[in-house]
Specification:
Largest interface: A-B, 78 and 74 residues
Number of domains of chain A: 1
Helix content of chain B: over 70%
Strand content of chain B: under 5%
Number of helices of chain B: 8
Oligomer: heterodimer
Distance between the termini of chain A: 48 Å
Largest sheet of chain B: none
Number of domains of chain B: 1
Shape of chain B: extended
Structural class of chain B: mainly alpha
Number of strands of chain B: 0
Order of helices and strands of chain A: HHHHHH
Number of strands of chain A: 0
Order of helices and strands of chain B: HHHHHHHH
Distance between the termini of chain B: 54 Å
Largest sheet of chain A: none
């Protein structure tokens, strides 16, 4: 497959997901937290019913970079860990699959929180 | 009763004022900014796989997300992210940049309340619900798969 074709699909699918997010922002006046939660749960659901891998094959970063991918890897981690280590997997699977992202977000937030000062919002 | 009528009037007044926040341009901006962030992620992912072919797809995605999280946190610290966010709306919230921003932004805002109870505690004011709901949902999925 041509490389540029892949980037076009990524652009269109990723853009569409953000477009849907923006519709939610406008129509329901959802806050950031609610939007993130909604999309994470959508990702968990898509992975749980087994649709995510097929979508991911097609959309690549278009669905993995949106927070849907984060939810999907939580669910995927849980499913795989349950298969390999049983009951313990329920507890360890989800978070360990996403540990990299969460730890990175916390670490960089801490470092930049120390370094930078909050910008006063100009009206 | 009278309050209700008044509230309704007020709400419709607010609605009339708010509804004009340029719905179509903001949808368009969310679309192309969000799309570009995803393309950037794809480029990162492709480069990582090109330079380190031995890496698994899963790890390549993890590296990609960490890079994007890093950039979003840095831009939040520099105060640039808020400007992009105001322009693109959900275009920056829905990608993983929004998750990163939702941790870094309160960390900066509450820094003056102290490092421990200000910055460290308030970091999760937005991301907390995301992590909690995601973890609980993934555990429910795990329980279902245990029995199926």
């Amino acid at each position: 497959m041509n490389d540029w074709y892949v980037y076009l699909i990524v652009f269109l699918t990723g853009g569409t997901i953000c477009f849907i997010g923006q519709i939610l922002v406008i129509k329901t006046k959802m806050t950031t937290a609610r939007i993130l939660v909604t999309f994470v749960l959508l990702g968990v659901f898509l992975q749980a019913v087994g649709l995510f891998d097929a979508i991911s094959q097609f959309c690549k970063a278009g669905i993995n970079v949106p927070i849907i991918g984060f939810g999907a890897s939580l669910a995927k981690g849980a499913i795989n860990a349950v298969k390999s280590s049983g009951i313990l997997g329920i507890f360890t699977g989800g978070l360990s699959a996403c540990a990299g992202g969460i730890a990175a977000a916390i670490f960089f937030a801490f470092i930049f929180g120390i370094i930078f000062k909050a910008k006063t919002k100009k009206m | 009763m009278q309050d209700e009528v008044r509230n309704k009037k007020y709400n419709s007044y607010v609605e009339a004022k708010i509804a004009k926040t340029h719905a179509w341009p903001s949808l368009f901006n969310a679309f192309w900014v969000g799309g570009l962030i995803c393309v950037f992620g794809q480029v990162c992912n492709d480069l990582i796989l090109m330079w380190f072919p031995s890496i698994s797809t899963q790890s390549a995605w993890a590296y990609t997300l960490i890079i994007i999280i890093f950039i979003a946190a840095l831009l939040t610290g520099l105060g640039v992210f808020d400007k992009i966010g105001a322009f693109a709306g959900a275009g920056t919230i829905v990608p993983i940049t929004g998750f990163s921003n939702s941790i870094t932004s309160p960390a900066l805002d509450f820094k003056n309340e102290g490092i421990i109870f200000g910055m460290c505690a308030k970091m999760f004011i937005i991301a907390g619900p995301v992590i909690v709901s995601g973890t609980v949902a993934s555990m429910i999925v795990g329980i279902i798969y245990l029995f199926v």
